[in-house]
Amino acid sequence: MAARKQKAVDDVAQLEQQLAQLKTQLVKARSKQEAAAQKAVTSATKDSTKATAQLKAARTKLAAAKKKKTPAAAKQAAAAKSAVAAAKKASDAVKANLASAKQELASIKAANKMAAEHEKSVAKAEAAIAKRQKAAARKEAAKAKAAAKKAAAKAKVRAKKAAAKAKAKAKAAAARAKVAAKKAAARQKAAEKKAALRAKRVAKKATTKKKPSAKKTTRKATAKKAPAKRVAKKAGAKRTAKKATAKRPAKKATAKRARKARAKAKTA
After folding, report:
1. Per the domain annotation, does 38 fall within a domain?
2. Is 70 helix (H, G, I), strand (E, B) or coil?
3. Angle at 152 between CA 150 and CA 158, to 5 degrees
4. DSSP result, 103-150
5. Last residue of one domain, picked from the residues 71, 104, 127
6. Which residue has the higher pLDDT, 139 or 220?
7. Residues 230-263: tens digit of each pLDDT
8. CATH number where 76 lies
9. Percent of the chain at pLDDT above 90?
10. Residue 94 domain-assigned (yes or no)
């Protein structure tokens, strides 16, 4: 479709170029024709002048022959008369030729004048059309420029909104990532703390398990070395218990007296 359109445009342009060339050739041909007609008129005018002179000379000879009274004068007069007739015929023919040439020249000039006026009016009309087309093109260009400016402004606003939206999304994503990182760090810290406490408990259990065995071995060694000390301790413990049982009634009596004294003070 595009190729066909391009070919049609090329054909039109080619024909317009040929038409311009033909117009130029036509103007040259008209000028040449007018020049030839003018030349023919000039030539016919010269011939007419010459024929008029010859006719005048023949008439002068005829008048001179008529004035003579000699026997040969009659013959000379007849010859002069025939010469005048021939000169007049030639002069008439030349004058007719001159009139025809002048008429043709006038016709050519009129046609050329009409063609020139036509070309002038066509050029004027084409100039007016070109002016209108130029104005329309300027108007269209201004309209397209305004539309492009409006579209650019809209695109700028859209880009600004998109950038703001992207910035907000990035900010929200960064905030979420920060919160997630903080939570992850807290979880990591808690896990590390938990692991440390677990390790501490395990270490403590291990230490606790190890200590009784050492004490047992020490106690066994001590029991083997000093059985007499334990017997003495047991006897001392029994004596201390007896003393404590003896002191308990005395302590109870003292507490009873103190309560009675407090009750008397309250009633007073």
Report:
1. yes
2. coil
3. 105
4. HHHHHHHHHHHHHHHHHHHHHHHHHHHHHHHHHHHHHHHHHHHHHHHH
5. 127
6. 139
7. 545 555 555 655 555 555 555 566 667 777 777 7
8. 1.10.287
9. 37
10. yes
Domain boundary among 66, 96, 127: 127
Give the residue, 41 or 7, on which the prediction is more confident.
41
* Residue 88 and residue 55 in contact, taking contact as beta carbons nearer than 8 Å: yes
Q: Could you identify the residue written with the tokens 């003070």?
A: 265
User: Into how many domains does the chain fold?
Assistant: 2
Distance of CA 238 to the CA centre of its chain: 113
Q: Please name which of 87, 84, 91, 85 lies closest in space to residue 49, comparing C-alpha atoms.
A: 91
User: What single letter denotes the amino acid at residue 202?
Assistant: V
Expressed as residue numbers, the domain containing 251 is: 238-268
The residue type of 35 is A
Per residue in 36-50, pLDDT (tens digit) is 999 999 999 998 898
Q: Please report whether residue 211 resides in a domain.
A: no
Is the pLDDT score of 89 beyond 80?
A: yes
The predicted pLDDT at position 153 comes to 93
Residue 148 included in any domain: no
- 20 or 248, greater pLDDT: 20
For 76, 82, 235, 240, the CA distances from 69, given in Å and listed in that order, are 11, 19, 227, 224
d(CA 77, CA 65): 5
Q: For the purposes of burial, counting CB atoms within 10 Å of the CB of 109, is it exposed (0-12), middle (13-18) or buried (19 or more)?
A: middle
Distance (Å, whole) CA 37 – CA 44: 10
Over the chain, what is the mean pLDDT?
Answer: 81
Whether the full predicted model's pTM is greater than 0.85, yes or no, is no
